[in-house]
């Protein structure tokens, strides 16, 4: 119902806030509310009915009566903030100042926005602020220290493993079998330690902002197939099949390498805990959207382990069905990757019946900037783009692109070449020399078929070059190549 821009505005609020529809279902839930109440957004957003935080009961049970102070039942109140209690996920009471305000969207449709702040006196507020800042700084220093130590340990360990590989080479055959077995065991231990250190470093880089997602659009089915090929040898060794059931034309917007690490880890775990003859499914959830599920019929996860599964400080790793071991960092790292994307990673599991992991990303509608000084030409290209689920921004000149792109960043630019004031070539030159815009893919569209025009475009950094009149079966695949569907 709401795109990521509306959610981003909600998250920018410095108070807890959530929005309810006419059914009492939560449709928006901001980051500050997550922090204060302990719930995660995906756990409470449900347009058909949601948790009632002010009564610590399901909202549906409040409809028939009772609970005069229930914020969820206030349809038309937009008064001053009032003191009340809200209930966190762990059922502890939270004293807050809360306000309910109706927001009209269109005739016959409205939301009620509940905003709230923790009730403290001025001294308590200042103490909380100072405590929070101190905790954040301590956490930053801890992450920095762990990363430095891990980095310093990795180099000597790698050297030790390298020396042991040199010993195993043994050209004169003087090493006894027992000695060879011992060196092999030492090498296996060394490689496990290096893998462990790499996991610590990856989590540290992500948390300290050294790893920043570089998001692009891509097709989920082809992406899933490429990740499957990385682990298919592991599945074959155990007699396990992997079935890619992702439908065609599912568009994702993410850092491909980071998201691949998530999916590869989920597949590796599914293989690890499956038996010979099992089939692992990789599919889009029934609810649809930009999400991927990895389903296995393996040993499952005990209920007491599930709440700790994504916590890096908890040791939850167990040997696989063939005795495989792991570092325990894969799932926490995957969880952090999904959070860095504004998405989430969830799991459902039953002991003896298997597990379903779901990696879901926010829905992002591709934004295409169409640049042409001729209205009829813009209309023609726009009509072609209607066949795809896109947001099209029409722009009349290259100069207008440079002024608008600071606050309306497109995912793809389609630009005519011959334009007054600033032609497509100059616009291309300006965009590619700017660090903020050089990664935006640009397709030039022109009636000029000269080879030197095409060569100049590619020398300046054009991502593609199309000649008018447009041929649909040629043009649309070029657009889909950059927008993943």
* CATH topology call of the largest domain: Heat Shock Protein 90
**CATH top level label of the largest domain:** Alpha Beta
What is the molecular shape? Answer: globular
- The low-pLDDT segments are 57-68
Mean pLDDT: 80
Query: What is the CA-atom radius of gyration, in angstroms?
Result: 27 Å
Number of separate domains: 4
Largest sheet: 5 strands, antiparallel
Q: How much helix, percentage-wise, in residues?
A: 25-40%
CATH architecture level-2 label of the largest domain: 2-Layer Sandwich
- Separation of the first and last Cα atoms: 21 Å
- Count of DSSP strands: 19
In percent terms, what proportion of residues is strand? 15-25%
Largest sheet: spatial strand order: 2-1-7-6-5
CATH superfamily of the largest domain: Histidine kinase-like ATPase, C-terminal domain
Specify the number of helices.
Answer: 13
Q: What does this entry look like structurally?
A:
With 485 residues, the protein is an alpha/beta fold. The protein folds into 4 domains: 4-119, Beta-Lactamase (2-Layer Sandwich), CATH 3.30.450; 124-207; 216-360, Heat Shock Protein 90; 367-483, Response regulator (Rossmann fold). It contains 13 helices and 19 strands. The chain is globular. 28% of the residues are buried. Residues 57-68 have low confidence and may be disordered.
């Amino acid at each position: 119902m709401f795109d990521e821009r509306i959610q981003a505005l909600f998250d920018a609020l410095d108070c807890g806030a959530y929005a309810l529809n006419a059914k009492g279902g939560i449709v928006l839930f901001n980051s500050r509310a997550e922090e204060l109440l302990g719930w995660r957004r995906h756990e409470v957003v449900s347009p058909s009915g949601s948790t009632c935080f002010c009564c610590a009961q399901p909202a549906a049970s409040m409809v028939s009566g009772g609970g005069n102070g229930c914020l969820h039942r206030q349809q038309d109140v937009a008064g001053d903030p009032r003191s009340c209690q809200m209930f966190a996920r762990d059922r502890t009471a939270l004293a807050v100042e809360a306000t309910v305000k109706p927001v009209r969207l269109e005739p016959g449709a409205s939301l009620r926005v509940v905003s709230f702040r923790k009730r403290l006196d001025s001294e308590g507020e200042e103490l909380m602020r100072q405590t929070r800042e101190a905790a954040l700084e301590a956490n930053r220093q801890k992450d920095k220290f762990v990363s430095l130590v891990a980095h310093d340990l990795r180099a000597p360990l790698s050297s030790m493993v390298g020396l042991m590989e040199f010993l195993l080479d043994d050209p004169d055959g003087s090493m006894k079998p027992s000695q060879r077995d011992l060196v092999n065991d030492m090498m296996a231990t060394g490689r496990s330690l290096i893998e462990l250190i790499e996991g610590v470093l990856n989590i540290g880089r992500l948390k300290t902002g050294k790893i920043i997602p570089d998001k692009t659009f891509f097709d989920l089915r082809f992406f899933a197939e490429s990740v499957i090929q990385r682990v298919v040898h592991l599945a074959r060794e155990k007699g396990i099949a992997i079935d890619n059931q992702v439908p065609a034309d599912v568009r994702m917007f993410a850092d491909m390498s980071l998201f691949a690490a998530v999916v590869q880890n989920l597949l590796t775990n599914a293989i690890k805990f499956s038996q010979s003859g099992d089939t692992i499914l990789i599919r889009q959830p029934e609810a649809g959207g930009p999400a991927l599920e990895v389903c296995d019929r393996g040993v499952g996860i005990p209920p007491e382990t599930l709440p700790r599964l994504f916590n890096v400080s908890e040791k939850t790793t167990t040997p696989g069905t063939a005795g495989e071991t792991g570092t325990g960092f894969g799932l926490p790292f995957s969880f952090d990757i999904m959070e860095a994307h504004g998405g989430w990673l969830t799991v459902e599991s039953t002991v003896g019946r298997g597990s379903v992991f779901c990696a879901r990303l926010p829905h992002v509608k591709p934004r295409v900037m169409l640049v042409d000084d001729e209205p009829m030409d813009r209309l023609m290209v726009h009509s072609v783009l209607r066949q795809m689920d896109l947001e099209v921004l029409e722009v009349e000149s290259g100069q207008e692109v440079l002024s608008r792109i600071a606050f309306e960043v497109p995912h793809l630019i389609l630009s005519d070449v011959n334009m007054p004031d600033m032609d497509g070539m100059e616009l291309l030159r300006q965009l590619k020399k700017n660090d903020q815009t050089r990664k935006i893919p640009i397709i030039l569209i022109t009636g000029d078929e000269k080879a030197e025009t095409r060569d100049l475009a590619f020398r300046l950094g054009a991502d593609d070059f199309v000649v008018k009149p447009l041929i649909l079966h040629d043009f649309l695949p070029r657009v889909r190549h950059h927008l993943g569907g």
